[in-house]
Specification:
Elements lengths: L16 H32 L7 H10 L7 E5 L3 E5 L8 E2 H10 L22 E3 L6 H14 L6 E3 L9 E5 L16 E2 L13 E2 L8 H15 L30 E2 L3 E2 L10 H9 L8
Parallel strand pairs: 1-5, 1-6, 2-3
Antiparallel strand pairs: 2-4, 7-8, 9-10
Length: about 290
């Protein structure tokens, strides 16, 4: 607008630069904090299989383990062991499988007989005790050798002696029955956490007493449950470790693209049409390194 006579146009106002800079800084910090929070939630989801906003303890723990790596040591535990429910933390004896079983069991009964009170569930935070391997010493050594043979192509160590550094292991309590965890289905031979990705410091189970302490059955059950913790789904091929099909003879991780499934074929976790258990483990763990001379 042109100025009228006898007046002078006011100079254009200068933007408050300091205030703008402060606003930008605050916005950047808010976005960064939100992004960090989202990242932590995603990590929590990948680690535990559940979406949850992490608390202070979880945040500290997540930061300490980032970036996450697959466990390079599979520890087979033959001794009796006591475990607690919670997010998987093998070095501390905390199991998400046990937490899941307890969560289901702790749900109050929906119906009760007339004149009777509904039975109160037991404390879901109580520990669980597994009795350990009850087979022979020879049978145990055969189990360890068999599991080591299954994972021989991959860069991972199978042992029954806990390493000095317990931070990054898959812990496999071997022994007992599913009822020791509170699972009522007696057909269950093993259990593992599974979300389609690598789970940090998992605890997986092989109920050897339920399997009659049969070496091959115990070995292949361990192979399947450990592979679940590395992200593998059930496979629909009789010769693959990840299958429920039987009888099939000795199984292995097969280098073949196959459908997933239990009693019938289906798409795999995440929607993929097929899975190659051998290639997937190579992708997660890498090939076995040559022995040092």
């Amino acid at each position: 607008m042109r100025p009228t006579a006898g007046t002078r146009a006011s100079p254009p106002s200068r933007p408050p630069r300091r205030r703008s800079i402060m606003v930008i800084v605050v916005l950047v910090l808010v976005v960064a904090a939100a992004g960090a929070g989202l990242g932590l939630v995603i990590v929590t989801r990948l680690e535990t299989g559940e979406w949850s906003v992490p608390d202070g303890e979880s945040i500290e723990r997540i930061i300490k383990i980032a970036p996450r790596q697959p466990a390079r040591t599979i520890v087979l535990e033959r001794r009796p062991i006591e475990l607690r429910p919670g997010d998987d933390d093998a070095p501390r004896g905390v199991s998400s499988v046990l937490a899941s079983v307890r969560a289901k069991a702790s749900k109050p009964a929906t119906t009760a007989k007339a004149g009777t009170a509904a039975k109160q569930p037991a404390d879901p935070r109580r520990p669980a005790k597994l009795p350990g391997w009850k087979g022979t010493d020879k049978g145990w050594q055969q189990v360890v050798s068999c599991v080591a043979k299954l994972f021989e192509p991959f860069d991972v160590t199978v042992t029954d002696v806990a390493p000095p550094d317990l931070d990054n292991i898959v812990l496999v309590p071997v022994g007992g029955r599913p009822g020791d965890l509170g699972v009522t289905d007696r057909r269950v031979g093993g259990l593992a956490p599974f979300n389609g990705g690598v789970i940090a410091r998992p605890i997986v189970f092989a109920f050897s007493a339920q399997l009659g302490n049969r070496v091959r059955d115990v070995c292949e059950t361990i192979g399947m449950e450990v592979a679940h913790a590395y992200g593998l789904d059930h496979g629909y091929l009789c010769s693959d470790v990840m299958t429920y099909l039987q009888p099939c003879g000795a199984k292995r991780f097969v280098d073949k693209d196959i459908r997933c499934g239990e009693a019938k074929p289906r798409n795999c976790e995440g929607g993929e049409p097929t899975q190659n258990s051998y290639r997937r483990l190579l992708q997660v763990l890498g090939p076995r390194r040559p022995a040092s001379p």
